[in-house]
Amino acid sequence: MPHYLRAWVPGGTFFFTLATFDRRRILSHRKSRRILAKAVTEVRREYPFSLDAWVVMPDHLHAIWTLPPGDANYGKRIGLIKAYFSKAAKTWFHEESLMTASRRSRRETTIWQRRFWEHTIRDDGDLEKHFDYIHYNPVKHGLVRRVVDWPYSSFQSLVKQGIYPADWGEAVSFDMQDNFGE
Questions:
Q1: Is 8 among the domain residues?
Q2: Which residues contact 81 (CB under 8 A, 6 or more apart)?
């Protein structure tokens, strides 16, 4: 079994990807997005972090968080968010027929993939690249033609703050996949 090494950078900024079990499209439901928002709010109350950028896709989500100075425990926060969501959404999205012995022994549901992807943001250029990746994701996956048309991301808020122009991404001719391999 592989041993995953995680970066522990107190007060660091991190890019995350969390995927649903078997890439089921459960995050496309309004109910699931409400539960997810509540889960993040509740966890941030007890374990603060800055939610710098995010996008919720039908079967996964991406986020950039900055942790408080001296705190490097993003794993605890992700675990709590996934647990809160799983408990609240189990009635609607858990599929008993997909359960395995391993998932039962770990008391998991069929809502989230067991692991998550994490990347430590190294510098301003890396941060900008990941912001762009997050916001272009719905276009990349063919869900919308324009970044501004996807309502489940931080893009509109960043446009209001003047960080992005509203037409950003419309003339993008580069392949985001080349940079990230997703």
A1: no
A2: 36, 39, 40, 43
Axis-axis angle for helices 74-93, 30-46 (nearest 10): 150
pLDDT tens for each residue of 78-128: 999 999 999 998 676 646 565 566 655 666 666 788 789 999 999 999 999
CATH code where residue 103 lies: 3.30.70.1290
Q: Which of 106, 17, 111, 2 is nearest to 63 (CA)?
A: 17
**DSSP 8-state class, residue 61:** E
Catalytic residue among 47, 133, 152, 164: 152
Distance CA 112, CA 17 (A): 11
Phi/psi of residue 107, each to 5°?
Answer: 55, 45
Is 84 among the residues known to form the active site? no
- pTM of the full structure: 0.85
Distance CA 180, CA 170 (A): 20
| Cβ-based neighbours of 38, under 8 Å, separated by 6 or more | 84, 88
